[in-house]
Specification:
The structure is a homodimer. The first copy, chain A, is mainly alpha-helical. In chain A, a hairpin with a 2-residue loop joins β1 and β2. Chain A has a two-stranded antiparallel sheet. The first copy, chain A, is built from 16 helices and 2 strands. The first copy, chain A, has 2 domains: about 190 residues, Farnesyl Diphosphate Synthase (Orthogonal Bundle), CATH 1.10.600; about 140 residues, Orthogonal Bundle (Farnesyl Diphosphate Synthase).
């Protein structure tokens, strides 16, 4: 079988789904099982085992850290959903919506602990390095979430601030899963650094595409209601970019429109989309994505991987540029 | 200077207070500084560095794990206060009360991450063992908190269930700080296990005395309003013990009294205290404490520590039996 992302996806998903997270007390662990078995693409842990394998080490050695990453990622979703008061994720009630926010908080804490339990199963000689990347990343993800919450009450957000937020909240974790895979694959420090850069830039592309799809995507393929960010008055790349381009009364009018919570929903979405199109924000978003994609490709060149392995990662990065899901 | 608990307390407190937890973004880290600099006795980390020193290793090696334990303990308080909707801790507004519950959740998560950051600074050859104890304990503390929340909605709680809850929620952490100190002090596995047992039993004494003080303590020395558990209808040792002794209509009457949320507060406290006294719950609580104290002393004998060191730990354990603070 050709070693595509799908190959590793199958291996990881089977392994992950075979874990039984339910134990005593049931009230604590059932929500964890619920959160972790909600499906999803498992992209992050798949990258970890794949990169370990690419660098020539047994991917089994990356399995527990990969499970840790997936558990950690889902923990952040459980707590973020409480903070965002989000009722639905992947078509099902969110954990706090189903079980209450106290259980949401505590089962999230337990998932975070569980993630560290899996990290602890890393081979001892690699443990300090893996632990360091994992913990640094966890800290940055918290900082990114805080910036995101700050944005809600800040009247203005600059593009630099916005890019820093998505870098911390989304991009660093993508870098970290690749780097952890490389560490466990016995890559050199330079190679670990290069694949980390590749991951960070690809993570930026991933998030920017998310911003685009939320407004201009196809509801059926994207799986979420289109226009959610607009209705939530969320300061996305599109909004910040438009605001940077507008001035005077046009700017004030757009700001009022975007932050209007009383307007008919369909009307608001149409009007904001018109303003985005008029101000060419799609083109700017795509060119920023392309810039990060180019930087990802530069970093990929320094990973020391074989051409056919680079091709898999390149294909992955390119899919982030054009995905509609 | 004689090496009493106070000696280590001074060293730890000075070190801990010298750490500046505030960094960017300020909205995330200021609540952390607020939570961590609220004072308190710092008992747990003090035990860690003391035991490391007792076993003959440089206590500096236990300093980062000790800071990790204190940070972790305070993280649990921040999240517990949200779950318990507790407005005040140590005479000041709780974190979520001061900053809102979203910041309470996220700065708690960040404190937990920070705790692992300090664990990661453990000497590499000791890191796997310390990490394992730390993570196992964190998991158990979460389980204990879940049981405590379950008790709120359970009509009946047995004494076994109650003891298991306080064991997980409180006692294991006391055991873990001592064990981590012993690991870092290069104690043998048997010695680590013995000091862990000593800590667990002393932790049980600590919590049972807490139950007693909450109802029968002195408001000035205890620092909390006396009768809080009664007003919160909390299933404590005292309540469970009384319920075990009562039967028939007396039992039903007591249950109704204890769970009455409309009665005048002073009247309810007086009536419940009368029922406790009538049913001899203080004596039972004290004899259970004594039983755990005796087990702690048995374990202490197996720690391989010098007589003067055992004396310090014995004095500590005895102070838990009679403390009024």
């Amino acid at each position: 079988m050709k070693k595509t992302i799908q190959y590793y996806q199958k291996i990881f998903t089977e392994r992950f789904n075979s874990i039984n997270f339910v134990k005593f007390p049931h009230e604590l662990y059932e929500p964890i099982e619920y959160a972790l078995k909600a499906g999803g693409k498992r992209l992050r842990p798949v990258l970890t085992i794949m990169v370990c394998d690419f660098y020539g080490n047994n991917m089994e050695e990356a399995m527990n850290p990969a499970i840790a990453i997936e558990t950690f990622h889902n923990f952040t979703l459980v707590h973020d959903d409480i903070m965002d008061n989000a009722p639905i994720r992947r078509g099902r009630p969110t954990v706090f919506n189903k079980y209450g926010s106290n259980i949401g908080i505590l089962s999230g804490d337990t998932m975070f602990t569980k993630a560290y339990e899996f990290v602890t199963l890393t081979r001892e000689d690699k443990l300090p390095a893996v632990l360091k990347v994992f913990t640094k990343t966890a800290m940055e993800v918290c900082e990114g979430q805080q910036l995101d919450m700050n944005f809600e009450i800040m009247p203005e957000v600059t593009m630099d601030e916005y890019m820093q937020m998505i870098f911390l909240k989304t991009a660093v974790l993508m870098g970290a899963c690749l780097k952890i895979g490389a560490i466990l694959g016995n890559a050199t420090n330079e190679q670990c650094e290069a694949i980390y850069q590749f991951g960070e830039h690809t993570g930026m592309v991933f998030q920017l595409q998310d911003d685009l799809l939320d407004t201009f995507g196809n509801e059926k393929t994207f799986g979420k209601r289109i226009g959610g960010d607009i209705l939530d008055c969320k300061k996305t790349f599109l909004y910040v970019n438009a605001m940077e381009k507008l001035s005077g009364s046009e700017r004030i009018a757009f700001q009022l429109l975007y932050n209007d919570k009383t307007m008919d929903e369909v009307e608001k979405i149409i009007k904001v989309k018109e303003a985005f199109i008029k101000n060419d924000v799609i083109a700017d978003c795509k060119s920023t994505m392309q810039k990060h994609h180019d930087l990802a490709m530069e970093a990929l060149a320094k990973t020391g991987l074989k051409p056919e392995q680079k091709a898999v990662l390149q294909e992955f990065a390119e899919s982030m540029l054009v995905r509609d899901f």
